[in-house]
Amino acid sequence: MEARQNYSPFQGRSIPVMHSTPPNKKRSCFRKCLCWTICLLLLQVIVVAITGGILYLVLRPKLPKYTVSKLQITQFSLNHDHSLSATFNVSITARNPNKKIGIYYEGGSRISLWYTSTKLCEGGLPKFYQGHRNTTQLVVPLSGHTQDAKGLLTALLHQQQQTGNVPLTLRVRQPIRIKLGSFKLPKIKFVVRHRLLVDGLSEKNDIRIQSSSRKYIRNAVKDRKHQLFGNLIA
């Protein structure tokens, strides 16, 4: 009886050996770089937070304060061509409440007086330095010329007759520089909106301010390295 011989399809053939795929060196390098970048960013955030905390504790920075103490109209008249000529003297009190911080008021200041969406007049603060815990009184002249103002005057008169007051908005855009000892930081631009409620507008008259409120809109720092200090006092 013949012995039965089993036949295998792999008989006489070599079976290939499967090797694991070697790690991709480029992918591994990318992951390492990503991890290092994240670690450095986290470290930078921690350093900035610690620096900000130290500066705040040492300097106790506070925003400068501005109040409008008086408004005086020297000209507010309708011309023959229905244009409006307006000139105001605005008395502003600027206070620096900081013990260790001086303030340089730089050029490029813009102050404008508005009734609703109409700009009545504009001007600017002079350049000056304000020392620690200093209060400075300023009288700022504002002047302007508005075309086709007949409807504007009618609206103002109607507003005054109906409510007994006129709402005005004083917008201030002021570049300043902070002084720490002998070191000056880059410019910070403050935008302040000062809402005023006055008893009326008439030429050659002191305006009685019934109420006022102010709001700091934003501050911008040219040099991002010093944005930390701008955020501290905002």
From TrEMBL:
It comes from the Eukaryota. Its main location: membrane. It is a single-pass membrane protein. Residues 92-184 form the Late embryogenesis abundant protein LEA-2 subgroup domain. GO terms for biological process: defense response to other organism. GO terms for cellular component: plasma membrane. Keywords: Membrane, Transmembrane, Transmembrane helix. SUPFAM superfamilies: LEA14-like. InterPro entries: LEA_2 (IPR004864), NDR1-like (IPR044839). It is found in: Membrane. The chain crosses the membrane at residues 33-59. This is Putative Late embryogenesis abundant protein, LEA-14. It comes from Rosa chinensis (China rose). The lineage of its organism: Eukaryota, Viridiplantae, Streptophyta, Embryophyta, Tracheophyta.
